[in-house]
Amino acid sequence: MRLRLALFLLPLYAVLVALAAQVRLSNPALFIACEVTILVSAGLTWRLYRGLVQPVRLIEAGTAALAAQDFNLKFIPVGQPELDRLIGVYNQMLDALRQERIGQHEQSVLLERLIGASPAGMLLLDFDGNITSANAAAARALGQPATALAGQSVAALPPPWGPMLANLAAGEPRTLRLPTGHTYRAAAAHFLDRGFQRRFVVLEELTQEILAQEKQAYEQLIRLMAHEVNNSIGAVNSLLGSFRHYAPQLAATDQPDFTQALEVSITRNTQLADFVARYARLVRLPPPAPHPLDLHQLLRDLGHLLAAQSAAQGVQWHWELAGPGPLWVEADSQQLTQALLNVAKNALEAIGPGGGHVWVRTTAAPPTLVMENDGAPLTPAVSQRLFTPFFSTKRDGQGIGLLLVRDILRAHGFAFRLETGTSGRTAFTCNLLPNSGN
User: Fold this and answer.
1) Are 403 and 342 in contact (CB under 8 A)?
2) What is the pLDDT of residues 306-345, one digit of tens each?
3) What dotted CATH number matches 118-205?
4) Cα–chain center distance at 81
5) Which residue, of 49, 101, 299, 318, has the greatest Cβ tally within 10 A?
């Protein structure tokens, strides 16, 4: 615009100067009047030019500031009413934009911190279903660093996460039980990003909630059973024992059958009392009393204890311990022995009478135990119900072995998992650092 104005004014003043020059000799008075008029006109034109150009410069500077998203630039009134009104509107607009930008930034920072500190896992997905970000809780649940999760497709996550999250529909939460004994509820939802829908997934851990509900339910049931059964068995056995005094009064031919029936009844009642007592011990499990113990010695004692059963089944034990010396850990020796004995017995039962192998491996840093067997693998359906109260795959199983293992190890704060790997072997892994399971 400045160039076009200059191209318009310069020829006009050139013509006026040329006309004034024509009358310079013939009419000096008119020449002087023309020169004065031209000078006054030039002064007024210059003032008009500055008045027109100054708003243009302000608009250029404001446009550049908006393009650079610099909302701190403000203009000072220049004394021209029209221009000052423009400056006032511009300054108000910048104040509003700056406040909006600050508010959005504060809300964004608050949202990021809330997501980061949330006990629920959060996975943000892009339009192709790949993970763009994950908070710390999601990283713990998935067992991978948040940086490693970024860019992965949810379908490519290791099972059981990948298959479940890939088919997770919005508004249809699903519950997943992991080989570690933890339980999660996954829910998917959508949000708008630049007018398009994007998915996010919330992973809520239900482990403590479910454990508390389960324990409350089976504790009441077991206490009721133990009370009623023990009261009845004690009285019945007392009566049966008193019947022994009547045996000599019977005919000689009837005495053996009578005595045998009494002994069978008393023995069966005693077995029933022991059966209920095993459940009662689960309820009365005391808090662990940790002390230094040699894990290697505990495992060797366990091997000696199961040597006869292993030999009868044709099971070979392979020991890959972390050095010939002791491996010290902090644990309640009685409870840890009971938990590992249950794990070892489950391994032998999985192998069966056909023979097989059990591998026992330890590492020192961190202290870790892996007990692996090549018996029947765990099916996905069974894996989902591991560590569930009273669930057993054995026909006469009570379903308290792995439940006891879970309660003992969680009370110690040890992380553990039981799963069948790609090799077909089933491995029980336990990290014997306290609080590694929380």
Assistant:
1) no
2) 998 999 999 999 999 998 889 999 999 988 998 999 899 9
3) 3.30.450.20
4) 62
5) 299
